[in-house]
Design brief:
The complex is a heterodimer of chains A (545) and B (430). Chain A has 545 residues and is of the alpha/beta class. In chain A, 19% of the residues lie in helices and 27% in strands. Chain B has helices at residues 6-11, 20-27, 44-51, 93-103, 113-132, 146-150, 152-162, 169-182, 190-214, 222-228, 238-254, 256-269, 271-279, 285-296, 329-332, 367-384; strands spanning 31-33, 39-41, 56-57, 136-137, 140-144, 303-308, 312-314, 317-319, 324-327, 385-386, 389-390, 410-412, 415-416. In chain B, α5 packs antiparallel against α7 (152-162) and α7 (152-162) runs antiparallel to α11. Classes of the chains: A alpha/beta (545), B alpha+beta (430).
Chain lengths: 545, 430
């Protein structure tokens, strides 16, 4: 059977791990790992685990009362209504429209489920470049790397519910807005009335192509990537090199230590996780990594990777002149947004993603909002009122789910019933037996303060502030407090916090947050994702009096 | 005030059988100030927020004028009092104690402990129900679900878990009663009740101290694990072991008894659900029934030990620093603003996010045990009691408004079905 846990909701109560200990396991205080495709023999315990979750964060395949897997009847388009005149255009679209989702992803599946749940009975096509049905990515860099689950086992549950025409393994290569169809790599076209773009990201490859081809070089994004890396790790390499200490790099390093492999992490920044959490909390993560035996080298870059005569990776030369003998290297350099297929479409698609409004409607290059094209997930950029209406692109699991749901709702709703996507960004990472959770935008900060707990014990809540208001909070193994800080961010509560709490640290003085790029002082509505000075918008028609 | 407020009416014994209409009235004002100066919060969202609010302490020493100077003595001779148990302290101490307790109870160090007890639970339940057949009183087949089942079952379980001789139950029963009464707000003012609570705790602690003294090699039970355990923070200091052992012993059965008794009462009032449970062709039904009971008829109606460390605004009302706050879990779980059709007992709910076990860092420690206890108990009662019916509805309730449940639950039945052969029993509950 299939299991997926919404770890954005999970607060580490561990009730699932009591009820089904062979499927759900706890690392450290509250970090949850689980088998996404457990044996059917575990079903009864898993059902108990899901029911016991205090925040109802566990989703399974649907079962009917008698424990049989529920098979949803395919949606049949209703027969033509005799009195068509009585039906509003929105209602007619809901019954007989054509929706195409590009991206067979978490966001794509969630959108499909929402469309069907809310009564869309028309035709639904899901296009995906990968040959796999939608799968869950977070376990790949965690459970899968340590061997608790197989790379092929993270398929998401309930995908049959959406009764879609799946076009898997065929990338979309173009979008014709005028003709309202998507072009596919195999030359076919798929027409739509409304389109959802959910093409997400791909891993940024190692920039030197010859070096990237060395046997032993990996990126971490897809099941294939992780399957290969898992095999390489199982072979017992002498040392693993992780290039880049973002969340993916840190999680890979954590898995290596779990497997008792020597690992070196190299990052050009001052500390791990600096890009997401700033260098202050990054420094805490650095201590944590070193405490777990990671050879962490910050402020250093990999200058070159060298192979042997058989093209096998053997050595890395670093910018500080040192060399490392390594058999396996993981390029964890962040990601590239999958927007190339939109080039020439006229949409505001650029390196930062596809610009859209708070209702997930795509902007065109000139900043004019479209009617029939929606965007959701990692590839979407939308303005956020809490962060000066900056266009934020969020590479978070929870955002993919929430935004897809709102996009889907809006696709089949009349104008007055559309919802805005305003949820605060949230994400988590499980590494070194620690659950790191974040709410808000930690890099939208000038100062940070430890509000609760102990950094030395790595059980704490850090609160970030910008110009005297709270903008983010990050918890290490203290997830149960985070919703409180989420409400403070929503209310623009004053920073630094001055209220008394339990478990106050002795020193509650804020320090400079040391985030990489400070927030833009004025709201900049840059729909194309290019700098204002580049001015990509074009004047298409002069107006005359 | 000439007339008692809604909250005082709820505390009054006359509303024990059905406080829910009064809870509905209470929810119309999400925050009210009680006659004793404490605040009462009754709506779902507000309770959830406060359960996770770090400005709310569980340590009564944050109450101005709280008499912390009189250390509790055991009522007899013996060692001086014990430290407060884990439910009356804050982090970081709370977290340390809870980690140490968890280390001997569940994941990550003892992940299979509770799951491994399930065959034991079924065995205890089976033998208690087998005994019903011998309880033929006054010519008709009749059983008191409380005294003959819902009380002895969890007591036996908690004794096994802690490593306490079952035959000692009469000895700690009186202390347990005293502790429960100290938690009853109708029996006195908070600080005075806390002193009684500490005394009763110290009495039980003394019992545990003698028990540990008398024991030889540590066993595999939870107490032994605490005393001799490994890990960076172990072992737990003896006084903390005694204080928390007392808590687990009492909480481990005084709450589950209500969950089971309230559960059987609710099932008898909803015969269609009882029938479904009896038929046994829905493998997940018991699980859903118990979750719904935790929402609909929770064994703990409210929490009374929360104290504001700062002014806290709740639903437009400022609760000033230094106040005591009551969180009415039972009212919150029936808040129509968050739960559709809340007064309907409906085990088929899609999404059941109830407050039955509280929430936040003090989430019920025993929840992972109470759930399978209730699932097994209710399943077996439903399957084996033939044509069960209530003798009195409503039954007579225990006085306590917090740990609310029937004092007796007399049920008549036509016979006892034999238990299923072990080979036909699925792994656990089915």
């Amino acid at each position: 059977m299939k299991v997926v846990v919404d770890l954005t909701r999970c607060q580490g109560y561990a009730q699932c791990a009591f009820a089904a200990p062979d499927v759900f396991t706890i690392q450290g205080d509250e970090a949850l790992l689980y088998d996404p495709a457990p044996d059917d023999a575990q079903r009864e315990k898993i059902v108990r685990a899901a029911a016991a979750c205090p925040v109802q964060a566990i989703a399974l395949e649907r079962y009917d009362r008698f424990g049989r897997e529920e098979v949803r009847r395919p949606h049949q388009p209703p027969e033509a209504v005799a009195h068509a005149a009585a039906v509003s255009p929105e209602e007619a679209f809901k019954r007989n429209g054509r929706i195409v989702i590009v991206g067979a992803s978490l966001a794509g599946l969630q959108a499909g489920r929402t469309l069907r749940r809310d009564g869309f009975t028309g035709s639904l096509t899901v296009i995906g470049d990968e040959p796999y049905p939608p799968y869950d990515r977070p376990p790949l860099s965690k459970q899968v790397l340590i061997g608790q689950a197989s790379a092929r086992a993270t398929a998401l549950p309930r995908r049959d519910e959406i009764d879609a025409h799946w076009r898997l393994g065929v990338p979309a290569t173009g979008l014709d807005l005028r003709g309202k169809h998507v072009l596919l790599a195999d030359g076919q076209t798929v027409g739509f009335d409304r389109l959802l773009i959910a093409t997400g990201l791909r891993a940024r490859p190692w920039p030197n192509e010859a070096e990237a081809r060395l046997d032993g070089m990996f990126t971490v994004r897809t099941p294939d990537d992780v399957e290969g890396l898992r095999q390489a790790l199982t072979a017992g390499p002498g040392r693993v090199l992780v290039i880049g200490a973002g969340f993916t790099g840190c999680e890979v390093a954590s898995a290596c230590r779990e497997l008792d492999l020597a690992v070196t992490v190299v990052d050009r920044g001052p500390a791990p996780l600096t890009g997401a959490l700033g260098a202050v909390i990054g420094g805490v993560a650095a201590e944590m990594m070193r405490g777990h035996g990671v050879d962490l080298r910050c402020g250093v870059q990999v200058a070159a990777l060298e192979g042997d005569g058989d093209g096998r990776l053997r050595r890395a030369r670093l910018s500080d002149g040192s060399t490392l003998d390594v058999d396996v290297a993981v390029a964890a350099l962040g990601s590239i947004r999958n927007v190339e297929w939109l080039e020439g479409s006229g949409l505001a698609a650029g390196v930062w993603g596809v610009g859209c409004d708070a209702g997930c409607r795509a902007f065109d290059l000139n900043g004019v909002v479209t009617d029939d094209v929606f965007v959701a997930g990692d590839v979407a950029r939308s303005p956020h009122p809490v962060y000066g209406y900056q266009f934020l692109a969020l590479e978070h699991w929870g955002n993919a789910v929430a935004q897809a749901e709102i996009a889907a709702h809006n696709m089949i709703s009349a104008q007055s019933e559309r919802w805005p996507h305003l949820a605060l960004p949230e994400f988590w990472s499980t590494q070194f037996g620690t659950e790191i959770k974040s709410v808000g935008v930690p890099t939208y900060a000038d100062h940070v303060v430890i509000a609760q707990g102990s950094v030395v014990e790595r059980r704490f809540v850090a609160v970030y502030g910008y110009r005297g208001r709270i903008t983010a909070a990050v918890a290490f193994n203290q997830a149960k407090w985070l919703e409180f800080y989420e409400r403070l961010i929503d209310r623009a509560a004053p920073f630094p916090p001055s209220f008394r709490t339990v478990d106050e640290p002795a020193d509650r003085r804020p320090v400079a947050a040391e985030v990489p790029d400070g927030p833009t002082p004025q709201a900049t509505v840059v729909v194309t994702g290019h700098r204002p000075s580049e001015r990509r918008a074009t004047l298409v028609r002069k107006t005359y009096l | 005030m000439s007339q008692d407020s809604v909250w005082e009416q709820i505390l009054d014994y006359s509303s024990r059988a059905d406080p829910f209409p009064l809870y509905a009235e209470l929810r119309r004002t999400p925050v009210v100030r009680a006659q004793d100066g404490s605040y009462v919060v009754s709506t779902f969202q507000e309770i959830v927020a406060l359960l996770g609010d770090p400005r709310l302490s569980s340590d009564p020493h944050n109450l101005p004028g709280y008499d912390a100077e009189a250390p509790a003595q055991a009522s007899g001779e013996g060692p001086p009092g014990l430290p407060p148990s884990v439910i009356f302290i804050d982090p970081p101490e709370h977290d340390r104690i809870r980690r140490l307790l968890t280390r001997n109870f569940g994941p990550p160090h003892r992940p299979g402990r509770i799951d491994g007890m399930i065959p034991d639970l079924l065995e205890i339940v089976t033998s208690l129900i087998d005994d019903f057949a011998g309880k033929d009183r006054s010519g008709t087949r009749r059983v008191d679900i409380v005294d003959d089942f819902a009380y002895p079952f969890p007591v036996t379980v908690i004794c096994r878990l802690l490593g306490v001789p079952r035959e000692d139950e009469p000895r700690f029963h009186a202390w347990s009663e005293a502790l429960i009464e100290a938690g009853d707000p109708t029996t006195g003012e908070f600080a005075e009740r806390q002193r009684r609570r500490s005394t009763a705790n110290a009495d039980i602690g003394q019992y545990f101290a003698r028990l540990l003294d008398a024991r030889g090699e540590p066993g595999d039970d939870l107490l032994s694990g605490l005393v001799s355990g490994d890990g960076p923070e172990a072992p737990m200091p003896l006084k903390e072991v005694l204080a928390n052992a007392a808590l687990l012993l009492v909480a481990g059965h005084e709450t589950t008894v209500n969950l089971i008794a309230n559960g059987m009462l609710t099932l008898l009032r909803h015969p269609e659900v009882l029938d479904r449970l009896r038929r046994g062709d829905e493998p997940d039904l018991a699980v859903r029934v118990v979750e719904e009971l935790l929402r609909y008829e929770p064994p703990v109606q409210f929490l009374e030990n929360r104290f504001t460390l700062d002014d806290i605004e709740v639903a437009g009302t400022i609760i000033p620093r230094g106040s005591r706050v009551n969180l009415v879990l039972a009212a919150g779980s029936r808040d129509p603003a968050d739960v559709p059709d809340p007064d309907r007992f409906d085990p088929d709910r899609e999404h059941n996010e109830h407050l039955g076990f509280g929430g936040g860092i003090h989430y019920c420690f025993g929840a992972p045990l109470a759930r399978p206890e209730a699932q097994i108990a209710l399943t077996e009662l439903a399957r084996r009691l033939e044509n069960p019916r209530l003798v009195a509805d409503p039954p007579r309730y225990r006085p306590n408004p917090v740990l609310r449940g029937p004092r007796h639950l007399l049920v008549e039945f036509d016979g006892i079905s034999p238990t299923r052969p072990a080979s036909k029993r699925p792994t656990t509950l089915g």
